[in-house]
Each structure stands twice: as structure tokens, then as C-alpha cells.
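DM from R.C. (forwarded with permission)

"hey, sorry to bug you on a friday — could you get me a structure for this? deadline for the figure draft is monday and I only need the backbone to look sensible"
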Amino acid sequence: PFHAYYMTVSGHLRYTFSGNNMAAKNKGVVKDLPYSENVKAYMATQVEFDRAMEYLLKKLEEANIADKTLIAISADHYPYGLEDEEINELAGHTVEKNFEMYKNNFILYAKGMEAEVIDKPCSSLDIIPTLSNLLGLEYDSRLLMGRDIFSDSESLVIFSNRSFITEKGAYYAPKGEFSSKNNQLVDKDYINKMIDLIQAKFYYSAKILETNYYDRVLASTTVK
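My reply, with the result:
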């Protein structure tokens, strides 16, 4: 068993056909798409990743290990190389900037798997515990901020400005506003409890760095 991590930059900005080799290379593929020039250039750069995945899947098949390989794909940010109106063009509507702008997909794939869509809120912090449980890896869940996406624990997505999303709604910290999901009634005590939880997570995250906590934990672990 082994793990390989790839980070592709073939789809990165700038999104112009004159200043991006990947966009220029795949210009013919996107020439008939109903988008403006920069958005077409963005789409053209993403073609390269699609081709890379095609090549990987082909090689896994040839090696007879496609059904023994779990592929996990996640984006690390929205396409900030595009202007707001260009992002709206891609989405087909005006994108809400506080939460929707950061919405994306986490894709897990293995040959022969049965398709399933998980639509509850999750974030990149949840990837490691999810993969660890799926693959039967031993880990201490207390040392990770995230949670297994497939578990029955309550979802929590945390933003750097201390805003958050749960299955009950979204809280925008700069304005102290909570928007409930599907207009359901949400108890104020619940909102305050979540605000306190977020504050605690930020506090203890800072303390982990200040005290070099993980070094202390690992140093005290006895290996037999």
C-alpha cells in the first residue's frame, strides 16, 4: 500500500490565451463554448487535468490495480484569476460571495464503486479523517479538527473570519447574522453554542502552535 499526492498547477491563472501555455494548447477544444474569452481560457486550462486523469485511469487499468486504488480529488480555492462577473458567467447566476463562492466538490472514486452523493456541509479539514476511516487506518480523532464525512456527527465548516456553516444554516460573523436552512426555526442558544465552539477552536489552535503541542504528544508516545 502507498499514498501519492499530486498538486496540479496546469489549471492556474492567468486565464488568457496569450499568457498561459495550457490555455493556448487547448484553445481549440473550448472555441465553441458559450463563454467570454477569459472564461474560455479558464476552461481550456482545466482540460489538461481532465487528460491527466484519463491517463492515470488508463495506467491503473493496465497495471490491474484500478479496483485497488482510491482516488480523491479536491480543489484548494475558487478561480480567483477570474473577475466576479466571469465567475457569475460560469455559474449561470450571481454567486453569493460570503459562502457560495467557496462551494466546491470533493470527489472519491474507485473502480466498481456504487455512486453516492453526500450533500451535507463539509470542508477540506474532513478529508483526512474520512479517508482514514474508509481505508481502516489507525488515528487519534482528538488530534484532528475535521470529522468523517460519512459519520453521523454534526457537520461543521469553519471560515477564517469565524463564520461557519452547519446543517441548520450559515452564520456570517462580521455582521453577526445567521441564515437558517430552508427557513427552519433555529434556537438562539444553538447559535450561541456554535459561536462559543468556534471561538474555542481558534483559541486552542493558537495554543497548539504556541506550546508545540504535537511535539509533546509524540514525545510522550511509547513505541513497543
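R.C.: lifesaver. Strands lie at 71-74, 106-109, 157-158, 164-166, 169-172, 177-180.
me: no worries. The helical segments are 21-25, 27-30, 37-62, 84-91, 127-134, 188-210, 213-219.
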